[in-house]
Specification:
11-stranded antiparallel sheet; 313 residues
């Protein structure tokens, strides 16, 4: 199920200006780092209490701005033929079910740290289980039979010419890194849960915005509010807009049916027992130290290996 394959696409839209107009129609973009802090505040279990570095790696891995649904003008992109065909080739699976299409924005000076996306399993996903655990499950390789294959497309629409290269590791976290320019109206389709990836700093301000809300004020003016006051203004040509697309991929209807009817679902109890037993056999976790917090840290340290220079688990 894992795929190190990726594809680059050009000329994604006949009129790339559609994306900027859709962003203006959306009007408001919230910082992903702000959303991650809200998520942290909701986590009451010691099982979710990891270090700041782990949270950066597994959740709040950047300070880009997310605008949610794309709106009616770009809804057709959910079934965009080029994305769907590339997703089929990515895993060699004929059934592709698009599930998500969102708008994103990077400001001058911003970047996305190297990370992998949070995977989904039959019976376990980010709505019900800690992100760090789902990421560790995937990188352990022990639960591939339950993983739902998701293809991701990232398409860029920008007038900005400098910086903001897309960086990823097609040969694993300790292999070579590849950087490709985020050219206007181009895209990359890949397995974002397997390939470590990020975005280099977008050329511009030396002190990038780290939170708040970005809103469209009209007349080609975008205003950044840091929560207390308007702190910066930008023209559309200063920003890097993106479309983020995800689709589930299945071998056949039987595999897809297992997701719907929840047959042979995983449970968190089974996963923690499997990972914990493996750690004890390797001597990575003492039986007397097997409280939730110790197990969580041991699992993250053992199974999540980030590339050199990325936030370490």
């Amino acid at each position: 199920m894992r795929s190190s394959h990726y594809e680059r696409l050009e000329n994604v839209l006949p009129d790339p200006g559609e994306v900027v107009r859709a962003a203006e129609q959306c009007g408001r973009f919230r910082s992903q780092s702000e959303a991650a802090r809200d998520s942290d505040a909701d986590a009451s279990s010691t099982l979710a209490a990891l270090s700041a570095a782990q949270r950066r790696l597994l959740g709040a891995h950047g300070t880009s701005f997310s605008g949610g649904a794309v709106g009616a003008s770009l809804e057709r992109m959910l079934t965009h033929e080029a994305f769907v065909d590339a997703a089929r080739r990515l895993y060699g699976r004929p059934i592709v079910r698009p599930i998500d299409l969102r708008l994103g924005v990077l400001l001058p000076g911003q970047q996305m740290e190297i990370h992998t996306n949070v995977p989904e399993y039959r019976g376990m996903n980010s709505d019900t289980d800690p992100d760090w655990l789902l990421v560790a499950m995937h990188h352990s390789g022990l639960f591939d039979d339950w993983r739902i294959a998701v293809a991701t497309a990232v398409a860029w629409f920008t007038a900005a010419k400098d910086g903001g290269e897309f960086v990823f590791y097609p040969d694993g976290p300790f292999g070579r890194s590849v950087a490709i320019g985020a050219r206007n109206n181009s895209a990359v389709v890949f397995d974002a849960c397997t390939l470590y990836h990020g975005v280099d700093r977008v050329a511009g301000a030396a002190r990038p915005a780290s939170g708040g809300e970005l809103r469209f004020a009209g007349d080609d003016c975008w205003v950044l509010n840091d929560g207390a006051s308007d702190s910066a203004r930008f023209a559309s040509r200063d920003l890097r807009f993106s479309l983020l697309w995800n689709a589930r991929c299945f071998c056949d209807e039987g595999e897809e049916r297992k997701v719907r009817d929840h047959s042979r679902d995983l449970t968190r109890k089974r996963v923690l027992e499997t990972l914990g037993d493996g750690l004890r056999r390797r001597g990575s976790l003492r039986a007397e130290a097997a409280d939730d917090s110790a197990v969580a840290r041991a699992i993250a340290d053992a199974y999540i290996k980030s590339p050199p220079g990325a936030p370490a688990a």
